[in-house]
Amino acid sequence: MRVAAVWFPDWPIQAARLDADDELKDPIAVVAHHRVKSCSHAARSLGVRRGMKVRHAQALLPELTVVEDNPDRDGRMFAALAGSFDDVAASVEVLRPGLVAVDVAAAGAFHGGEGTATEMLVDAAARRGIDALVGVADEMSTAVIASRASAVVAPGGSRAFLAAQPLRVLVAEDALGAEPQTVSALGQLGIATLGDVAEIPSTAMSTRFGTPGMHIHRIARAAPDRRVAPELPVADLAVAITPEEPIERVDTAAFAARALAAGLHAKLKGAGSNCLRLKVIAELTDGARVERVWRTREALTETATADRVRWQLDGWLSSGGAGAIASLILEPVELAAPETVGELWSSGASRDEARRVVERVQSQLGIDAVVQPHLVGGRGVAERIELVPYGESPRKVEAAPWPGAIPAPLPARLGGGIDHPASRIILIDATGAAVGVTAETLLTAEPYGLAWGEKRYLVTAWAGPWPADEGWWGQRPNRVARLQVVAKKEKGGVSAWLLAWSRGRWAVEAVY
Question: Which of 123, 172, 447, 485 is most buried, with most CB under 10 Å away?
Fold first, then answer.
């Protein structure tokens, strides 16, 4: 198998230019949620970066042209452009707006050689103001990585090519499906290239990183990949619609897309399956038939399905190359079992269902009604967790040392907070006197017993205290000393706490 990946760098920028008839002036940045999502080469060369706050980017580059993010625009423009490849190859698969995979072996057999077919793909993508790079390799994932270097990897040479590629290339392209947290963890272990990843034994990778690690390992080893748009045997779950009047307008196409998506996902739910690749087929009034395969890294939701169908129909209708649409067919060409998320949302609930529940709650109670915890920097425990509204990206945290930070392993459960009445605790020495902390951050005596509410414990081990001067830069400064304590009941198991001494009393900050 030989696969060609055609990559359009910074596609949101290129789509915005196309939509504006190439009237946007460089440097350009596409922004979403007040941060830079994508930027042109000119903006990048002057210091603008993805993830940068818009205000910071404009201060750095006052002449920056800011365009709001519009996924519909990106998908619509690319659906029209992807049709150009149909004249070169029969097996064309859209991985995402801005990235296409083509079976170049079959195209080369038809056109007289792989090189000729590759040149024809480049010519097919040629548009005024449009940049495209092509990578060719034996595997789809390798071809996607090669497209960023515009490289043609010789047959059998994927492993050697990947060995020199930096580890960060895995997170540069969403279509590769590499989990960013796993890539970050590998980098922290000193692994710098895909060659380093390939040298790790698969058992070690599986044990330490599970399924995400094995996926990265397969990419690094250039493991055999699936074919481009193969005809897989699947259940007959296709849905079709034949409107009373042929579809000629984009708004009518959008309505049909929503209706078809709802019907398809009703069938998928009944069959207990998710769709990973979807074929959109349109039968035209002149008897012709056009089709396109869309693929996503995650299972298609009903909304994502409707979006892709709408983009494709908009592309066909806007290009002028297709006539009115007489009927539409959605055909799943690759299915997968739904992934379960356990008892949190109810037994057997899928991530798609959980996401819809969360979005429904947020629509009724506000976006802050459902939050997710994310790790950030800090010395204590509570301050290392930041609660971010579900669906929003957490702020980027720079790796930096925190002198005085609580050492690992960290506690598993937070207490009520230093000021919470239920968190108050009494620590005594062997004589029954209260144990406190001196101005020199030393314990007044060796801990012997501990009382938490009506429960009594004998202290078996302790470590600390560790002082921290927190919040001195704000309106509520707080000096705190932390102590790790292990204790046991007379008839019971062993417990461990992280205690905090503040304002002359002890409190449970977290429980191990």
Answer: 485
Q: Are 48 and 61 in contact (CB under 8 A)?
A: yes
3-class secondary structure, 387 = strand
Q: In what order do the strands lie in the sheet with 92-96?
A: 133-137, 3-7, 99-103, 92-96, 289-295, 274-284, 325-336, 239-241
Cα–Cα distance list, 109 to 51, 105, 116, 151, 266 (Å): 43, 6, 10, 20, 41
Give the length of the chain: 512
Structure tokens given for 189: 């272990």
Is the link from the previous residue into 409 a cis peptide, with omega within 30 of 0? yes
Q: Which amino acid is at 216?
A: I
Q: What letter represents residue 318's amino acid? A: S
Q: Which of 198, 240, 199, 228 is nearest to 216 (CA)?
A: 198
- Evaluated on CA atoms 356, 360, 363, 367, the torsion sign reads negative
Give the span between the Cα atoms of 341 and 299, in whole angstroms. 14
Contact 52, 290 (CB under 8 A): no
From residue 196, give the alpha-carbon distance in Å to each of 211, 224, 266.
Answer: 18, 19, 45
Q: Is the dihedral of CA 102, 105, 107, 113 positive or negative?
A: positive
| CB contact at 8 A, 496 and 486 | yes
Beta bridge partners of 482: 466, 500
Could you tell me the end-to-end alpha-carbon distance of the chain, in angstroms, rounded to an integer?
53
Which two tokens mark 273? 């399956």
- Greatest alpha-carbon span in the chain: 98
Q: Tokens 């969403």 — which residue? A: 174
Strand-pair category, 28-32 with 65-68 = parallel
pTM: 0.56
Token output for 56: 């910071």
Q: What is the distance between the alpha carbons of residues 244 and 64, in angstroms, rounded to a whole number?
A: 48
Domains of the chain: 3-10+70-220 (3.30.70), 239-336 (3.30.1490.100), 344-398 (no CATH), 413-511 (no CATH)
Query: pLDDT tens digits for 106-140?
Result: 888 888 888 888 888 888 877 777 788 889 999 98
Assigned token pair, 292: 């396109």
Return the structure tokens found at 143.
Answer: 């071809």
pLDDT digits (tens, 9 = 90+) for 385-442: 788 888 777 777 777 777 767 777 777 777 666 666 667 788 888 888 888 888 877 8
Is 485:450 a contact under the CB 8 Å cutoff?
A: yes
H or E element in which residue 138 lies: none
Q: Yes or no: say if 29 and 53 are a contact pair by the CB < 8 Å rule.
A: no
How many angstroms separate the CA atoms of 490 and 456, rounded? 8
Give the helix ranges, DSSP H, for 166-301: 169-172, 180-188, 194-199, 202-220, 250-271
Distance, C-alpha 217 to centroid of its chain = 18
